[in-house]
Amino acid sequence: MFRRPFALAAALSALALVASACGGAKDSGTPAAGGLTSVNYVTTATVPGSTQIALYAVPKQMGFFKEEGLEANLKTANGSSAALQVIASGDALATNAEVASTMAAVEQGVQVRTIGSINTSFPWKIGIPAGSNIKSPADLKGKKIGVISLASGSNLFTRSFLNENGINPDKDVKILPVGQGTQAKAALDSGQVDAIALYAELFSQLEQAGSKFTYLDNPSLFDGMPSISFTVSARTLSGKDRELAVKYARAAYKGLMFARLNPEAAVEMGLKTFPELAGTGGDTPKRRAELLTLLKAWMTTSTPQTDDTSAWPAWGQLSDDQLKKAAQWAVSTGQVKKEPNVADVFDGSLIKEINDFDHDAVIKAAKDYKTAG
User: Fold this and answer.
1) Are strands 70-76 and 30-31 parallel, antiparallel or unpaired?
2) For the chain, where are the E strands, in sequence order?
3) Which of 92, 96, 187, 233 could form a disulfide with 192 if both were Cys (CB 3.0 to 4.6 A apart)?
4) Residue limits of the SsuA/THI5-like domain (predicted)?
5) What integer pLDDT is reported at residue 248 of this predicted model?
6) CA 302 → CA 104, 278, 322, 338, distances in Å?
7) Exposed / middle / buried, residue 373 (Cβ in 10 Å: 0-12, 13-18, 19+)
8) How do strand 228-233 and strand 112-117 relate by DSSP bridges?
9) 340 backbone dihedrals φ, ψ, rounded to 5°
10) How does residue 14 score in pLDDT terms, banded at 50, 70 and 90?
């Protein structure tokens, strides 16, 4: 059993910092200019990336929030645990949090509920540098595996991956924190580690920097396991903000649908909303191509992979089997002491309303949209 990584005290400390950054005001759901309702959304990343492009920049730039009568304000928190405390406190309407983190928060008495999936397949995997003699999980014995940090989901995934394959993570391998991006690449290139555990978008980033990988198959536990999901305060589901949660998720899913069909336009909207995404080199064709590759990698775990939109399922739906796997993962990694009741974590009663929009109109808008470049 792993040491539980999501201590409530730490999350509360993080909450104090975020609440300070947000001004501490419970202003989500208040009137705004133009007859709109102002709502706060807290994202679990301190810097914008593909999640923020698809779920915030696109609906903002396409007017999907306004169509729902909302003025959406983006706040930031450092990780799922902190973000969950923010929405539980009433300082934000919703967040995108790990399902396992939501289970841990619920077990600790935090009144939050997942209302719809975002990542519909598990994004973490173990990459092996091209040319390595590691061909199967068994070959990892005696090797060094890099993770982002020992407190990250990267470490939890690695340990679970090893346990599922009959490898003792404390005795049979060495797990080393190597960060991500250039730090991780340096660790791989120098031979400090023999393999690395990241999620799809980060591997794509390394591949753009010249690294080449083969990937080990994940154990069956991770097949179809959900990761990031929309989460709200439990009070929201029975209170006046219920309709706001439906409207926000609906607009966000419109953005995700649009991004899947026209990722080039989504990147353009991301750069307009978050100019810092351009980096020091500015908004160049090269930078747009890099962001496009990252967005597409993220969407391999967040959107349907078929181009036949008529076969796409309802946005946000989570099955009991998917939630059961997430619960087993949460228990095995020590994030919770026991498997929670599905109803205590996921409320699917909003799914039908969330999907009550003109899908054909969004599809047409995405296909007709022409980028400035």
Assistant:
1) unpaired
2) 30-31, 37-43, 70-76, 94-98, 112-117, 124-129, 144-147, 174-177, 195-199, 213-215, 228-233
3) 187
4) 51-266
5) 98
6) 23, 23, 14, 28
7) exposed
8) antiparallel
9) -80, 160
10) very low
pTM score, whole prediction = 0.87
CA distance 302 to 237: 24
On the question of pLDDT at 15 being above 70, the answer is: no
216: which DSSP letter? P
Rounded Cα distance, 145 and 167, in Å: 13
Write the DSSP string, 228-275: EEEEEEGGGGTSTTHHHHHHHHHHHHHHHHHHHH-HHHHHHHHHHH-G
* Dist CA 167 CA 149 (whole Å): 20
Q: Domains, the chain, ranges and CATH?
A: 8-119+228-368 (3.40.190.10), 124-219 (3.40.190.10)
What is the CB-side half-sphere exposure of residue 5 using CA atoms within 13 A?
Answer: 22
- Distance, CA of 26 to CA of 366 (rounded, Å): 35
Report pLDDT digits (tens) over 185-234: 999 999 999 999 999 999 998 999 899 999 999 999 999 899 999 999 99
Query: Which residue's entry shows tokens 């989570």?
Result: 318
Q: Determine the Cα–Cα distance for residues 52 and 363; give it in Å rounded to an integer.
A: 20
pLDDT digits (tens, 9 = 90+) for 60-69: 999 999 999 9
Angstrom distances, CA of residue 85 to CA of 221, 336, 343, 348: 28, 17, 20, 21
d(CA 86, CA 54): 22
| Strands, sheet with 195-199, edge to edge from the N-terminal-most edge strand | 174-177, 144-147, 195-199, 124-129, 213-215
Residue found under tokens 């396992």: 100
Instruction: Kindly give, in sequence order, each residue whose CB lies less than 8 Å from that of residue 80, ignoring residues fewer than 6 positions away.
Output: 6, 44, 95, 97, 98, 101, 102
Cβ proximity of 277 and 291 under 8 Å: yes
HSE, side-chain direction, 13 A CA sphere, residue 252:
31
Give me the mean pLDDT over the 312-324 stretch: 94
Distance CA(93)–CA(244), nearest Å, equals 8
**Residue 361, SS3 per DSSP:** helix
* Neighbour count for residue 363 (Cβ, 10 Å): 18
DSSP secondary structure of 50-104:
HHHIIIIIHHHHTTHHHHTTEEEEEEE-SSHHHHHHHHHHTS-SEEEEEHHHHHH
